[in-house]
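Subject: Protein record for review, amino acid sequence with backbone structure tokens
Concerning: The relation between a protein's sequence and the shape of its backbone.
How to read it: Take the token row as a discrete description of the fold.
Enclosed: The protein record, placed directly beneath this head.
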Amino acid sequence: MSAVCPLNFERVDANVTRFSALFVAALVGLYLYTTNVFILYFLTFDFVMKLFLNRGISPISMLAEFLKGVFKIKNHLVDGGAKRLAGFFGLFFVLLLIVTHYLDLWEASVIVAVIFLSCSLLDVFFGFCIACKIYFIIKKIYPNFMNNL
């Protein structure tokens, strides 16, 4: 199995996505601490901006780009397909957290948040993208997966 993600011919900076994942994880942790659902609304807005509108105007992406520049971190380009799939997973997890919040299922919220945090923090600290592995498997089965997204 390859250690890199399969190509979709769009490259993104892994350092920016790792900063973004760190901010998302921090906000999910803040939600768990405060149970303020508006944090989840902000995350939903940010994921929608990244996935469906313009990644460049996402507040978290802008902050990540800024910090990359402040710390003078060099580009580390990776395939964007897996990172895009990770964004869809992130949006799914945030929406699931909102649903469990309004259904007053705190234990389910904690379970969803722990899974979400685990995936995010694996990418932040170890550069291990679970979505990348899933993307690789799906692309082997369905070669045209996410080509039009």
The chain has a mean pLDDT of 85.
